[in-house]
Amino acid sequence: MTSLHGLVPHPALLLIAGALLLPLLRGRARSVAILALPALALAALWLLPDGVLWRVHWLGYPLTPLAVDRLSRLFASIFLLLAGIGGLFALRQESRLEIPAAYLYAGAAVGVTLAADLISVFLFWECMAIGSTLVLWSAGTPAAWTASRRYVGVHLAGGMLLFAGVAGQILGTGDTGFHVMRLDSPASWLILAGFLVNAGAPPLSAWLPDAYPEASWSGMVFLSAFTTKTAVYVLLRGFPGTELLIWIGLFMIFYGIVYALLENDMRRILAYSIVNQVGFMVTGIGIGSEMALNGAAAHAFTHILYKALLLMSAGAVLAATGRRKCSELGGLFHSMPVTTLCGIIGALAISAFPLTSGFVSKSLVSQAAADAQLQGVWLLLAAASAGVFLHAGIKFPWFVFFQKDSGLRPADPPASLRWAMLLLAFLCIALGIWPDPLYALLPYPVAYVPYTAAHVVTQLQLLLFSGLAFFVMLDHLRRTPTITLDFDWLWRVAGPALAGVARARVRAARARLARGLTGLGRRAGAWILRNRAPDGLLLRSWSSGSMSLWVMLVLMAYLALYYLG
Amino acid sequence: MSLAQHLPALQVVLPLISAPLAVLLRHGGVAFLLVTAGAWAAFAAAVALWLQVDLLPAGGVLTYHIGNWAPPWGIEYRVDRLTSFVLVLVSGTAALVLTYGHASIEREIARASHYLYYAMFALCLAGLLGITITGDAFNVFVFLEISSLATYVLIALGRDRRALTASYRYLILGTIGATFFVIGVGFLYLLTGTLNIADMGARLRDVENPRAVLAALAFLTVGISLKLALFPLHQWLPNAYTHAPSTVTAFLAATATKVSVYVLIRFYFGVFGESLVFQRLPLPEIMLGLSLLALFAANLIAVFQDNLKRMFAYSSVGQIGYITLGLSFDSVHGLTASIVHLFNHGVAKAAIFLLIGGLVLGIGRPGAPPPVPTFKHLAGLARRMPLTCLGIVLAGLSLIGVPGTGGFISKWYLVLAAMEQRQYWLVGAILLSSLLAVAYVWRFVEAAYFRPVPGDGGVVREAPLVMLIPAWILVAASIWFGLDTSLTVGSALDAAQSLLRSGT
Amino acid sequence: MVNDLIPRVLGKLLIPFILLFALYVQFHGDFGPGGGFQAGVLFAAGIVLHALIFGLANTRRVIPDALVEAMLACGVLIYAGVGLAGILLGGNYLDYFVLDPNPVHGQHRGIFWVEVGVAVTVCGVMLQIFYLFAARGHDGADGTD
Amino acid sequence: MKRGHRLEDPRSIRKLWRGFLVLLALSVLAGALIDPKPHFAIEGWFGFHALYGFVACLVMIVGAKVLGWCLKKPDTYYARDGHDD
Fold first, then answer.
1. Which site in A191, A416, A507, B294 is 20 to 30 Å from A518, CA atoms measured?
2. B466: confidence class by pLDDT, cuts 50, 70, 90
3. Nearest-CA distance from B175 to chain A in Å?
4. Geometric angle at alpha carbon B11, from B179 and B82, rounded to 5°
5. Which of A239, A273, A276, A284 is nearest to A377 (CA)?
6. How many CA atoms lie within 13 A of A91 on its CB side?
7. Cβ of A372 under 8 Å from any chain D Cβ?
8. What is the pLDDT of residues B263-275, one digit of tens each?
9. Model pLDDT, residue A468
10. Domain-by-domain residue ranges, chain C?
11. Is the ipTM of this complex over 0.85?
């Protein structure tokens, strides 16, 4: 490996190596390492100049696992920042697997952003799937375990799509580089599909609210930050201006809102809201103007911060009470003032309230839609802003911290958790008031001023009246202990059921055929019938005679085919 | 005359001599030392040969004339890139397995038979190396029989009484396979009047009776397919692997079927020629179909197994499907995939079976016959045998084809080969079948890591270091060859190119 | 059969000749029909006859199991040794020409030793098979399976 | 804590409601003072955002309700009959 900046390590590899060494440490050294690792990686990132820094040959292809430009620096920075703050929040987590897994996960996400060729992207992509699954596992509950199986299934499927796409793209173009792609070949469609699976796009979006809420109280903070935002990053780099993405994004936005409105579990509400927020970014990428792309990137940045803040407050509640359902919570503001405050700040930020970070980023996207004269899109985005306030901005804090008093009086969480939340809350407000540092980081120059009187007033009108709608319709929003079926029903219930039906059908068919003269049908039916029995066809040994018969059959078949061929 | 010139002969003779010496001395410990030394010497010879071939210009061949008789009449040993590659795999695995095996053999084989085990192991190794290195078709048959007979004895040495029936079944089928092979060779001899493989290929082009050539091809294909356990001729394999001693399973899984694949490649490309096998006959279609069947049926069967060794035995049948699938493409990428997978799968599977050997040792009670490693034993095992379980999972990742492991490299080339021919559905099939591999590796992970330790778990110890180190060398190799592919892909690509060039 | 007079006497007479004939076949293999394989089988046949007449236990005293196994091994070793001798003397493996300054004599010498190796191994294998089958039912514990 | 927190007192809740309504009115009135620089004609309507926000939310809530009737299940649904394994 040749490195022009030999003294500065690859930030992603630094974090991953650190993650692998973390299990060896104990006590204070471990805490220091947890906080220092992301900081070191962040420092390494900012010491690197722009441009392609590493070139490697692998499998006969030139790879560039380290290349920095504005876009990758932005995403890598926020990933590392969140890894550090998440590490602080999770410092007291009992599972010793979680933080190393999360750092592996974060490191892989950073690796994706710093890789400038498709193969490296794919390798880090798969590494990310492993890391995130481990984070999910470390919750240690049976529910997390079963959820992680479905999670891994979806991600492996997505990884396979991406794998096939990358292979096809390289074969088709002879170029391993990761540039803007056009949807003109099956390979690029496969790549897009692989990216969209991770972004939580329909119809596979259900993996997200299915799996994330099963993580531990700290694990979900990590999960919320990396997978979907890495997908946003690769879409930004690979498919800007693809019109299809506008409609996918809008679908995600409203899907998230509607399902979150129906949801009872506070962390599933927030999980649906991730889909919703990623929808904003995907829409922005689909619009594809410089401002829209800036908006998508900025929104990913701010979203990571406020969604982490929201999930931390939810995590603090979960850690303190052990409860997740809105119908069992309420009135917690009495004894958890810091958590309540942070939750509210996060909720305001996600709703893009003026003076919060969400306001300065989301405005870029809707402004871009307006500039592109996409009236329908713009209207839907405005409605969606109102909807976000409805489902996340009010609903989450209201049902968790206020509404009817549940009688629970847990204390605010310990210092490390509080500080992590306060730090994020500070960032959410600070970026809202002073967005210039964020704007300076964006991939394209920004000539947009969010704080015009008109914009502030119209946004306030929109949000306040959706608040009114919430309280007017409060009776219809009462939480009941229910869940809402989603696409995951297809693979959790319908798939097995269909298999059962199919088995029954085959059995019936077997009966019919057996009545006839065909022995073939009997054998096929018997196979299905026996396939899971302990001494069935699959498990028993064959006699030498039948094996020899097979040999003869194959020989005959070969001879016959050659004779004819 | 320097020693380096005689390496091709020494390659086979060194392990061969260690076998009768082991019998002569009749002592398990001495036999262990002798045979292990022989295997390491063979490994050194293989590496040296590899280096020698490396110095030759591309496509170069080292030849060695046994008894100084010139090739078409005398027996010739030929070493090209592919040969040396397979030699390194076979002798390297043997050396590691033998070094590893002492502790495991103590438990799994009666003490009185130890020297026999080592002698048979040496014979089997010599036979496999001989098959690989010889350039004479009848000599291939002789070495095939040497290695097969030794293998039957090795399998029958298993403590489980079912090992005898498994060995017997393998004996019957192996003999049928060898007979078919020799019938095929006989046909070719009649047609060409030579037994030298290279000479045979040259003379076959002028032969006018295609029917007889086709019959020879059919017999050879079926005979070798039996030995390499191509679906549906694989039924001898699961029982043989399951009931043989762990070390034997590890060695066979890594080498025996792989050497058969090598023979198939030799005959297809060296004797019959690409145009006959792949362009005029429906062979690629048949092989494609059978490979796909193997990928799905065998992997699916593997998912439902209860016995760990049996599960991975079926997984071997499935993985062989990838190798033959690569062959069926008849392209440089496809052939590269086959050769690389032959190596990578051998390494990963050897690691897994070695670790299972350690696992059997760990869960068994001292003095009692070794238990059958079923999933029942696995519950919560990761906490008590962390290194063993982690190793199995890591090598399992290579079976799945996770990026960063050897298995990924082979799959990458398979997918490239499929895409080259615009068979996108095959890409889907390849990737889907790896999901089945996920399923069975997952079952292991679930049982070992997530099930609680049963109350009457008994004493379970981590396997001894002398077993863990060779196994972990293989695990590390399966990851190393996923990252640094210059050895595997470099050799395979080279070999594939020269095979395809010579065939046309 | 130990108590039957005629077989005993005839056996005592015949067995040395059988063994001698085996050696003849062995050494005459160069010029006439014969060779190591046939010689080994003949030699083994003589010993099998001994076992038939005087009982397995007696034969096993004359030619113990360990010796049979040693024969198996030694034959292969002789064969391989000839091959290695070729290398040591500067030729290829199994190169007979270099075994003697005169290449023709070298050929003779090489073939001779190879045939000895074959004969010893074949004889050993025959006896081993005979012992294994003959011992079944009498002292099964002795079997190596 | 029988009396409850300040915020749970019905009187202060009424006060909060009143304050909220005043805020709503102010925000709509403020719309008259600004220059909206509309991109689309519809944006220029007086109080458009207020009305649109309210109506959009109602529609979404009703939509969610309708969807809920079809798809809502007790939250033990998956756990109940062992689908979840």
1. B294
2. confident
3. 11
4. 70
5. A284
6. 23
7. no
8. 999 998 888 877 7
9. 87
10. 5-142
11. no
Characterize the bridge pairing of strands A482-484 and A51-58: unpaired
Residues 6+ apart with CB under 8 A from A232: A199, A278, A281, A282, A285, A296, A300
Task: Check whether residue D75 and residue D44 sit in a common domain.
Answer: yes
Q: What is the pLDDT of residue C144?
A: 40
B239 close contact with A: CB closer than 8 A: yes
CB contact under 8 A, C84 and B68: no
Residue C122, min C-alpha distance to chain B (Å): 14
**Same domain, residue pair D20 and D50:** no
pLDDT tens digits along A452-509: 888 888 888 888 888 888 888 877 777 666 777 777 776 677 767 776 777 677 667 6
Domain count along chain D: 2
| CA separation for the pair B140, B175 (Å, rounded) | 14
Q: What share of chain D is helix, strand, coil (3-state, %, to 5)?
A: 70, 5, 25
D abuts B (3+ Cβ pairs < 8 Å) = no
pLDDT of residue A204: 77
pLDDT for position C142: 42
Is some CB atom of chain A closer than 8 A to the CB atom of D1? yes
CB of C77 less than 8 A from some CB of B: yes
Domain that holds residue D23: 1-34
Chains A and D touch (3+ CB pairs under 8 A): yes
**D80 shares a domain with D47:** yes
CB pairs under 8 A between A and B: 119
Peptide bond into A203 cis (omega under 30): yes
Q: How confident is the model at residue A512 (pLDDT cuts 50, 70, 90)?
A: low
Q: D25 with D59, same domain?
A: no
- Does position B453 have pLDDT exceeding 90, yes or no? no
How would residue D1 be classed by pLDDT, with cut points 50, 70 and 90? very low
Q: Reply yes or no on whether the pLDDT at A297 is more than 90.
A: yes
User: Which runs of E-coded beta strand occur in A59-171?
Assistant: 61-68
pLDDT confidence band for A517 (50 / 70 / 90): very low
Is D12 an interface residue toward A (CB < 8 Å)? no
Report chain C residues whose CB lies below 8 A from the CB of B16: 76, 80
Are residues B407 and B394 in contact, defined by beta-carbon separation less than 8 angstroms? Answer: no
CB A360 within 8 A of CB A450: yes
State yes or no: pLDDT of A283 exceeds 50.
yes
- Shortest CA distance to A65 belongs to which of A142, A127, A155? A127
Closest residue in D to A467 (Cα) is: D54
Residues of D within 8 A of A382 (CB-CB) are 49, 52-53, 56
Q: Cβ contact (<8 Å) for C80 and B17?
A: yes
Does residue D49 share a domain with residue D24?
A: no
